[in-house]
TrEMBL record:
Organism in which the protein naturally occurs: Candidatus Xianfuyuplasma coldseepsis
Record's protein name: Probable glycine dehydrogenase (decarboxylating) subunit 1
Domain Glycine cleavage system P-protein N-terminal: from-to ranges: 3-438
Keywords, comma-separated and alphabetical: Oxidoreductase
Assembly with partners or alone: The glycine cleavage system is composed of four proteins: P, T, L and H. In this organism, the P 'protein' is a heterodimer of two subunits.
This enzyme's EC code(s): 1.4.4.2
Catalytic activity as recorded in UniProt: N(6)-[(R)-lipoyl]-L-lysyl-[glycine-cleavage complex H protein] + glycine + H(+) = N(6)-[(R)-S(8)-aminomethyldihydrolipoyl]-L-lysyl-[glycine-cleavage complex H protein] + CO2
The keyword Oxidoreductase belongs to this UniProt entry's keyword annotation: yes
PANTHER family attached to this UniProt entry: GLYCINE CLEAVAGE SYSTEM P-PROTEIN, GLYCINE DEHYDROGENASE (DECARBOXYLATING)
Length: 442
């Protein structure tokens, strides 16, 4: 075991002495003897053809299921060109572009990613390297409390519970207090927000389309927040902004959310990529990487990492955020998708998803025990009510080759009998009709 270690025997003895261990094998005492020296029964080598055949046999054991659930992760189509390009070695194996002179390609597509985000959000600037929409939202909370020197934040109860869990975790370890604004008829209760809003809070976090797929009216918030100089943080599925009014048009200070719906496969829950965009006034408070464009000594266009505080990478205790890993491969996914699809293509994919979800909801209400709950306009998620047992429903759907809907009581015990459905442009009329037929039997 020492053969591949650069340490000398003396080095190892000194390290063991420091940690109070007499023998290096004592480091592995926690591993049960039954797991040591296992005969893994590794088969003999095979030809390429035999390997392909073996993996095809294994693949036949998989159940390929059709999802009718969203809640923040959507089964949108990924054009084949995406995988072809992102798996090129210069993209797949590259990491953090600290040396701009040899990282121009990586820096350029990060810049293009930021450009896509600012165009969709109508914000001044965007960064890169956000892990997902939930952590991006928590980072926005840090930005707001840091900028306003306030230790409390308001969050709408219509925000996805998974995002709220991340916000609470981040807040706990920064000593921040999270207060919630009530939900009323599936949307944020603006009257409750007006009563709670004060100079104690750095601002409010609102999601639209929200957890229930409902499109929130974000118009009132700017004027209410101006009274207390609070910040307006809007979480949105980025693809929805190809159709809906952008956060910047509502006067948002920070726009955040997930980019998974722009070409990133479901992949059993990740990896995904978030976005964070803000105003020029707040851009120096942004975490993650920010790529800019300039000209070099020869007058040629050049891309650089810019506005990066030294604390971001070295003096971590003084940093606004400790985001370090580079998300550029996922940013490339999004950038290629946006380029290939174009404005019209993204809009059409989302409109087809909206149409499919509305058709699904109508068919379920007409032919099954599921009935509508909220009256507000919804996007590509919809909540319906039924007294059917969640476990029975999930088993029936699974046996028929479907995943979904999501029983909301699994996230919130007060949401008993409520189910969240979703459909995308990949769901054909035949798929939806077959799914509805399965639920008719309940």
């Amino acid at each position: 075991m020492f053969k591949y270690l650069p340490h000398t025997k003396l080095d190892i003895e000194q390290m063991l002495q420091v940690i109070g261990v007499s023998d290096i094998n004592d480091l592995f005492l926690e591993i049960p003897d039954s797991l040591k020296g296992l005969d893994l029964d590794v088969p003999q080598s095979h030809s390429e053809l035999e390997i392909y055949q073996r993996f095809e046999e294994l693949a036949q054991k998989n159940n390929v299921l059709i999802p009718f659930v969203g809640a923040g992760a959507y089964d949108h189509y990924t054009p084949s060109i995406l995988r072809h390009l992102v798996e090129r070695q210069e993209f797949l194996t590259s990491y953090t572009p600290y040396q701009p002179e040899i990282s121009q390609g990586t820096l350029q597509y990060i810049f293009e990613f930021q450009s896509v985000i600012t165009e969709l959000t109508k914000m001044d600037v965007s960064n890169a390297s956000m892990y997902d929409g939930a952590t991006a939202t928590a980072e926005a909370m840090f930005m707001a409390t840091n900028a306003k020197k306030r230790s409390q934040i308001l969050v709408s109860k219509t925000v996805n519970p998974n995002i709220i869990n991340v916000i609470n975790t981040y807040a706990h370890y920064r000593g921040l207090k999270v207060e919630f604004v009530a939900m009323k008829n599936g949307v944020t209760d603006v009257d409750d927000f007006t009563q709670k809003n004060s100079k104690e809070y750095a601002g409010i976090i609102v999601q639209s389309p929200n957890m229930y797929g409902i499109i929130e009216d974000l118009t009132p918030y700017r004027a209410i927040l101006d009274e207390t100089k609070g910040l307006f943080i809007v979480n949105s599925d980025i693809s929805s902004l190809s159709i809906l009014k952008a956060p910047g048009e509502f006067g948002a200070d920070i726009a955040v959310g997930d980019c998974q719906s722009l070409g990133v496969p479901l992949s059993f829950g990740g990896p995904y990529i978030g976005y964070l965009a803000t105003t020029t006034k707040l851009m120096r408070k942004m975490p993650g990487r920010i790529c800019g464009v300039t000209t070099d000594s020869d007058g040629k266009r050049a891309f650089v990492l810019t506005l990066q505080a030294r604390e971001q990478h070295i003096r971590r205790e003084k940093a606004n955020s400790n985001i370090c890993s580079n998300q550029s491969l996922l940013a490339l996914f999004v950038t290629i998708y946006a380029t290939v699809m174009g404005k019209q293509g993204i809009r059409e994919a989302q409109q087809k998803s909206v149409n499919a979800t509305h058709y699904l909801a109508n068919q379920l209400e007409q032919k099954t025990s599921f009935k509508g709950v909220f009256k507000q306009p919804f996007f590509k998620d919809v909540v319906l009510r039924s007294s059917v047992d969640p476990t029975v429903l999930e088993d029936v759907c699974f046996d028929a080759g479907f995943v979904g809907p999501l029983a909301l009581e699994r996230l919130d015990s007060s949401m008993k009998d409520l189910y969240l459905f979703s459909a995308t442009e990949k769901r054909s009329k035949a798929d939806i009709d077959r799914f509805v037929t399965v639920l008719e039997g309940l």
